[in-house]
């Protein structure tokens, strides 16, 4: 664990390391490879997987319970009209439908709203993680080495940090996570990540290597206080679609897997008993009795301390996860709450300092477009944009006028660009949406200050193809 200044790095002594950073005995693997392997195991058990189809719509029974999902229509032109290749989507009906779309799932968001699953819960809070995969010279490889960083390049206005894992086969995966509750609209998470790589303590791991892949994804900042009710008639939310990530431990895959297992056990029991379309309450009770609940509850204050200030975050992480366990207190006796949504935190551009980022060198640092290229993102050309606006005037009249167009900076794929509006002339600008670049991170759906951007599923499951990430 390194605390970075602009040029220096201070290593936290092992004896002072809070327990949340203890990763001894864990495995360093590619999540993309694990998912692929799990898919093969599931298929061998007779599970049918439809990778080329996105679930585009939730279907409901007459009694209001979830009936299943519909896949999107295919062969719709850019103008929204059917082309010669038009094919209507399929309806998939189920006794129980489990939503596992990751943070801010576009269907999960709808069921949370419809069934008021977040009523009485803390406001969910998110971060954006930007990640790259590198191949490095063999003599630099240290398989199993894990480095986490705090400090530079972020200042005290933002929450976040870096991670770097040495994998097998001379590969390194590294990235940066920034809380989406930041206030400065001039901030660019993509550029912060690029400049973080130039720090001597990070650069030394990838120098002489080659970037193989790039990706970005929003994640929950996970407190159990913000977990919505996870069950509703006919279905459930699991993994980051609900928000099971443990931000303090900087990991969520274990929590996603466990929540899926608990939900599967509850669904299996219900189907075996001849039930369907009711609430899988055994999932919620099973979670409360599990090690996962105990783990998340132990770390429940982590992010909320950082919301007070980075200083309080560091201090209280030390108190709660280094000091208290030493005196026999496993779980802190206090609970913090958050009521503020991330999109309300942006301040007007005129109130915040502009940030000037260095130009990419094409060796260690890169621009957005070359990054999207190595994310293997692919969308069918002829389709309506899957980034939709509730009100087409808001980007210029609110986002550009008040916040200097933050979507052109927080989007890690260069999807949003303000360009001259030739129809209007006189220096007017308009928002151009390059939807084909979208890496499906969901940041715009979360951070847009007026919640005017709505992410919908593109055709045919198009999007990034992360094979080894
Ligand atoms: S358009 Fe939205 S979802 Fe797509 S990459 Fe940009 S911020 Fe992420």
Q: Look at the helices and sheets and give the structural class.
A: alpha+beta
User: In terms of per-residue confidence, which ranges show pLDDT below 50 for 5 or more consecutive residues?
Assistant: none
Identify the bound ligands. iron/sulfur cluster
The profile of the biggest β sheet is:
7 strands, mixed
Termini separation comes to 22 Å
Which fold name fills CATH's third level, the topology of the largest domain?
A: FAD/NAD(P)-binding domain
User: How many β strands by DSSP?
Assistant: 19
Strand content: 15-25%
Shape: globular
Report the C-alpha radius of gyration, rounded. 22 Å
Multimeric state of these chains?
single chain
Q: Classify the helix fraction into a percent range.
A: 25-40%
- The CATH architecture of the largest domain is 3-Layer(bba) Sandwich
CATH class of the largest domain: Alpha Beta
Tally of contiguous helical segments: 13
CATH homologous superfamily identity of the largest domain: FAD/NAD(P)-binding domain
Tally of domains: 2
Task: Tell me what the structure shows.
The structure is a single chain. By secondary structure, the protein is an alpha+beta fold. The chain folds into two domains: 1-345, FAD/NAD(P)-binding domain, CATH 3.50.50; 346-461, 2-Layer Sandwich (Alpha-Beta Plaits), CATH 3.30.70. 26% of the residues lie in helices and 21% in strands. The chain has helices at residues 31-44, 106-114, 189-196, 200-206, 253-272, 281-288, 291-298, 302-308, 310-326, 368-373, 394-403, 407-410, 443-447; strands at 2-4, 9-11, 55-60, 66-71, 74-76, 82-87, 91-93, 97-99, 126-135, 146-151, 160-166, 171-179, 210-220, 231-232, 235-237, 387-389, 416-420, 429-433, 453-455. The strands form six sheets. The protein has a seven-stranded mixed β-sheet with strand order 2-1-10-11-12-9-13. A hairpin with a 4-residue loop joins β11 and β12. The radius of gyration is 22 Å and the shape is globular. The model has no long low-confidence stretch (mean pLDDT 95). Bound molecules: iron/sulfur cluster. Iron/sulfur cluster (SF4) is lined by residues 387, 411-413, 415, 438-444, 455.
């Amino acid at each position: 664990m390194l605390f970075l200044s602009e040029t220096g790095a201070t290593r936290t002594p092992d004896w002072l390391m809070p327990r949340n950073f203890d990763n001894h005995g864990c495995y360093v693997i590619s999540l993309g490879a694990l998912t692929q392997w799990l898919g093969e195991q599931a298929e061998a058990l007779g599970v049918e997987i439809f990778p080329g189809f996105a679930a585009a719509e939730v279907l409901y029974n007459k009694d209001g319970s979830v009936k299943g999902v519909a896949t999107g229509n295919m062969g719709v032109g850019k103008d929204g009209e059917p082309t010669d290749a038009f094919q209507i989507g399929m309806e998939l009906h189920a006794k129980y439908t489990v939503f596992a779309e990751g943070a801010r799932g576009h269907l999960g968001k709808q069921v949370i709203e419809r069934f008021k699953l977040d009523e009485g819960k803390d406001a969910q809070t998110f971060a954006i993680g930007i990640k790259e995969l590198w191949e490095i010279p063999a003599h630099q490889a240290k398989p199993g080495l894990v480095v986490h960083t705090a400090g530079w390049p972020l200042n005290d206005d933002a929450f976040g940090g870096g991670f770097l894992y040495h994998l097998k086969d001379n590969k390194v995966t590294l990235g940066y996570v920034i809380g989406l509750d930041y206030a400065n609209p001039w901030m660019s998470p993509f550029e912060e990540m690029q400049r973080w790589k130039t720090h001597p303590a990070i650069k030394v791991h990838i120098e002489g290597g080659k970037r193989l892949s790039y990706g970005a994804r929003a994640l929950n900042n996970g407190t159990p206080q913000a977990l919505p009710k996870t069950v509703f008639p006919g279905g459930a939310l699991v993994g980051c679609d609900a928000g099971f990530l443990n931000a303090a431990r900087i990991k969520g895959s274990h929590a996603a897997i466990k929540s899926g297992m608990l939900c599967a056990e509850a669904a299996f029991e219900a189907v075996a008993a001849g039930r369907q379309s009711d609430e899988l309450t055994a999932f919620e009770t099973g979670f409360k009795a599990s090690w996962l609940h105990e783990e998340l509850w132990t770390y429940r204050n982590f992010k909320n301390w950082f919301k007070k200030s980075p200083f309080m975050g560091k201090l209280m992480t030390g108190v709660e996860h280094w000091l208290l366990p030493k005196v026999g207190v496993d779980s802190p006796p206090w609970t913090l709450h958050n009521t503020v949504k991330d999109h309300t935190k942006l301040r007007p551009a005129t109130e915040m300092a502009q940030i000037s980022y260095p130009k990419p060198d094409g060796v260690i640092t890169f621009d957005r477009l070359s990054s999207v290229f190595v994310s293997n993102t692919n969308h069918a050309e002829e389709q309506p944009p899957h980034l939709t606006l509730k009100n087409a005037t808001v980007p210029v009249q609110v986002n550009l006028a008040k916040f200097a167009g933050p979507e052109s900076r927080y989007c890690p794929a260069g999807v949003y660009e303000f360009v001259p509006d030739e129809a209007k002339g006189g220096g007017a600008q308009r928002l151009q949406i390059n939807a084909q670049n979208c890496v499906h991170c969901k940041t715009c759906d979360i951070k847009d200050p007026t919640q005017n951007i709505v992410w919908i599923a593109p055709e045919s499951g198009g999007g990034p193809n992360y094979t080894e990430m």
